Amino acid sequence: MSTVVLLTLTGLGLAALYFLIASGLSLVFGLAGVLNFAHGLFLSVGAYVTWWAAPHLGLPLAVVSGVAAAAATGALTELVLIRPLYTRHTEQVLVTVGLSLAGVALLQSVWGADARVFPRPEWASHVTGVLGAQVPDDRFLLIGAAVLVLVALLAFLRFTRYGLVIRAGVENRAMVRALGIDVRTAFTLVFAIGGALAGLAGILGGMYFTSVSPGQGVSLLIFAFIVVVIGGLGSVTGSAVAAAGVGLLQQFVNYYGAAGAGDVSVVALLAVVLLLRPAGIAGKAVAA
Amino acid sequence: MSREPVLRVAGLSVRLGGSHILQGVTFDVAPAGVTALLGRNGAGKTTTLRAILGELPATGSVAYDGREILGRPTHRLVRDGLAYVPEDRGVFAGLTVAENLRLAERVPDPDYALVHELFPELATRAGQRAGTLSGGQQQMVAIARVLLNPNRLLLVDEPTKGLAPAVVTAVATVLARVAGRVPVLLVEQNLAVVRRLATDAVVVEAGRVAWRGAAGELLDDGEATRSLLGVGRH
C-alpha cells in the first residue's frame, strides 16, 4: 500500500511538470498553429535564471525572476521569430528547432554541460507520512503548484476578455479577426503565458531533480508533446488529465516493469489514443 | 444623401494554388439598400467577399468610403465598420451564445436592445453552447454579432443556406430591416430572397462580372437568369 501511495504521488509530481510544459505548448499550437520546438528553451531559461539569481536575490525573488525571464523569452520569440512566419509552417519548425539547439549550445558555452545543483526550499527536502508511505515534500510542492496554475489558467480563460479571445481563436482564428479583434496580440500573450509556465516547470523540475542541466528542457519536452497530443490540442483540461495519466503510467511501469519500460508504455498509450481518438481526449478540429 | 458608392471594387484578382479564381472583378455597392452578388457555385462570390475583407491575397483596387483598403488587415477593416457574416456562420461552437456576442462587442454600448428585439430567443438561450443550436439559431447569433456594433457596410454570405423555409423568411425579414439602416452586399442563391431584398445585382461568372444592373431587371429576364444563374424564371 505504501509503495502504491508513494508511486502515485511521485507520478502526480512528474505529471505536474508535464502539465506545466504541455498546457502552454497546447495553447500556443491551438491558437497560433505553431509547433514550438523551442518551448524547452523557455523551461531552461526559467531554471537557469533562478539558479543564477538565487544567491543574489534569495530563492523567492529568484523564482519570480526566472518565470518573468521565461515569459519575456516566449513573447520575444513570438514577436521577432514567429510573427513573420505565420503562413510559412516549414520555416516555423526550422526556426524553433534551430532556436532550441542554439539555446542549449548557448547555455553549455556559458555554464558548461555539467548539471548544476539547484536551490530548493529547506522544507522541500523533508518527508511526510501518508498512509504509511514516507513521501518527499517536493512532490506536494509540484502538485500544489500545478493545481494552482490549472485553476488560475481556467479562471483566466473563462472570465477574462483575453481568455475569451484565446478560446475562440483556438476554434477559428480567422473568424476572431473577422470580428475586429487583432488576434496577434493574443498570439504574443499565449507565448508569454506558455513561456512563464514552462519557466515555472523548469524551476520546479530543478527542485525535483535537485539539479539543472542544459539538455533538461529538451528531454522533458518530448513527454510534454505526448501529453499535448493525448490531451487534445488547445485544451488545458485535456493536458491536465493526459499529464496525470502519463505521469502515473510512467512511474508504475518503471517500478514494476523492466528498466525503461515506463517510457515505452507512454509511447504505447500515445499510439492507442491516436488510433481510438485521433483528436485526443478533449480535442476538437482546429480551423484556420 | 450622397449617392457615392460605399464600396468600389475595380479589377479585383485573386490567384490561389495556381488557379486564377477572380479575374478583374469590377462593381460598386450602393450607399443604401442591398446589392446582391450572384452567380453559380464556384463562380467566385465568396472569394470576392473574402478578398474585400483582406482574408485572401488580392490585386486590383477596393475603395471603401473613398479610401483604398486592399492589403489592410481584416480586423482594422472590421473596426472601421465593414462587418462580415460568413457562409458557414463562423459561430464559436464551444462558447455560449452570450460569449459569442460578448466577443463581438467593439463599442462601449453595444446595441443589445436591437439584437434582443430581432432575436428574442437569444436572450433565453444566452447560457447555451452555440454548437448545440440549430442552423437557424446559429444564423441568428452570426447576424446578431454584427448588429451589436455601428457598421457602415455589411458583407453577408449566403445567410439562408441550409435553413428551413420558415427560417429563411425570418432571416430575410431581419435583413430587410437591417438594410434600412446600413448598406448590405449580399451573396445569396435563393432568388426569392434576392427579389425581396435587393435593389442592385452583380452576377459573377468564372471569376469575372458577367452582368450588373437593377436586381428586378435581372430577375424579370428569364433568359438572363437561366444563362447566368442556371435557374428558371422566379
From TrEMBL, chain A:
Keywords: Amino-acid transport, Cell membrane, Membrane, Transmembrane, Transmembrane helix, Transport
TM regions (residue ranges): 6-27, 34-53, 59-81, 93-111, 140-164, 185-209, 221-248, 255-276
Gene Ontology biological process: amino acid transport
Protein location: Cell membrane
Name of this protein: Branched-chain amino acid ABC transporter permease
GO CC, any one term: plasma membrane
Keyword Transmembrane among record annotations: yes
Membrane topology value: Multi-pass membrane protein
CDD domains: TM_PBP1_LivH_like
Protein family: Belongs to the binding-protein-dependent transport system permease family. LivHM subfamily.
Source species of the chain: Actinoplanes siamensis
Gene Ontology terms for molecular function: transmembrane transporter activity
From TrEMBL, chain B:
Alphabetized UniProt keyword annotations: Amino-acid transport, ATP-binding, Nucleotide-binding, Transport
Pfam families attached to this UniProt entry: ABC_tran (PF00005)
UniProt keyword NADP, yes or no: no
PROSITE patterns: ABC_TRANSPORTER_1, ABC_TRANSPORTER_2
Gene3D superfamilies, alphabetized: P-loop containing nucleotide triphosphate hydrolases
InterPro entries: AAA+_ATPase, ABC_transporter-like_ATP-bd, ABC_transporter-like_CS, BCAA_Transport_ATP-bd_LivF, P-loop_NTPase
CDD domains per the UniProt record, alphabetical: ABC_TM1139_LivF_branched (cd03224)
SUPFAM superfamilies membership: P-loop containing nucleoside triphosphate hydrolases
GO BP annotation list: L-amino acid transport
GO molecular function: ATP binding; ATP hydrolysis activity; branched-chain amino acid transmembrane transporter activity
Domain ABC transporter: from-to ranges: 7-231
PANTHER family associated with the record: HIGH-AFFINITY BRANCHED-CHAIN AMINO ACID TRANSPORT ATP-BINDING PROTEIN LIVF
Family: Belongs to the ABC transporter superfamily.
Protein's recorded name: ABC transporter ATP-binding protein
The organism of origin for this protein: Actinoplanes siamensis
Species classification: Bacteria, Bacillati, Actinomycetota, Actinomycetes, Micromonosporales
